[in-house]
Write a structure and sequence with these properties.
This protein is an alpha+beta fold. The chain contains 4 helices and 7 strands; from the N terminus they run βααββββαββα. Strands 1-2-3-4-5-7-6 form a 7-stranded antiparallel sheet. β2 (45-47) and β3 form a beta hairpin. α2 (23-40) crosses α4 and α3 (93-99) packs antiparallel against α4. The radius of gyration is 15 Å and the shape is globular.
Length: 141
């Protein structure tokens, strides 16, 4: 089985965030990092070269493949700020309706800038997703 490329590592989160070229994206990333640390109670850790994760969970597929992954996290990409809402969005229609301007993928929340969303609603969304992940999967931390 191929090894997962994106893994938790000891790279310096602060140095990574300081290296974000776009000023607004760098400032937004600092806010999201503080918010996720507060909500999860975990310090940030690098996952791969460009994802900042908080907490982790262990999963195993029926095929036997298993790995650890972040419980939540984000990446300050060039085009958008990407938040990883690992529980997906099917249970959060009420929150998404109040969030503001965003797009979603399977477990990705794409935000152009934090000024486009309600931070209190974002905090609640991250908190509910994190609580779901911790209740659903054993805690490897």
């Amino acid at each position: 089985m191929a090894e997962l490329k994106t893994q938790k590592n000891a790279a310096d989160v602060e140095a990574f965030l300081a290296g974000v070229a776009n000023d607004r994206r760098r400032e937004d990333a600092a806010v999201v990092a503080a918010l996720m640390a507060e909500v999860t109670g975990h310090p940030p850790a690098m996952w791969g070269k460009s994802i900042v994760g908080f907490g982790s969970y262990h999963y195993k597929y029926a095929s036997g493949r298993e790995a650890d992954w972040m419980a939540t996290g984000f990446s300050p990409r060039k085009a958008k700020l990407v938040l990883y809402i690992m529980s997906g969005f099917s249970e959060y229609d009420d929150l998404l309706g109040k969030l503001g301007k965003y797009k979603t993928g399977k477990s990705c929340l794409y935000i152009n800038k934090l000024a486009d969303v309600d931070l209190d609603v974002l905090r609640e969304l991250i908190g509910k997703s994190y609580a779901y992940m911790k209740a659903t999967y054993p805690d490897p931390d």
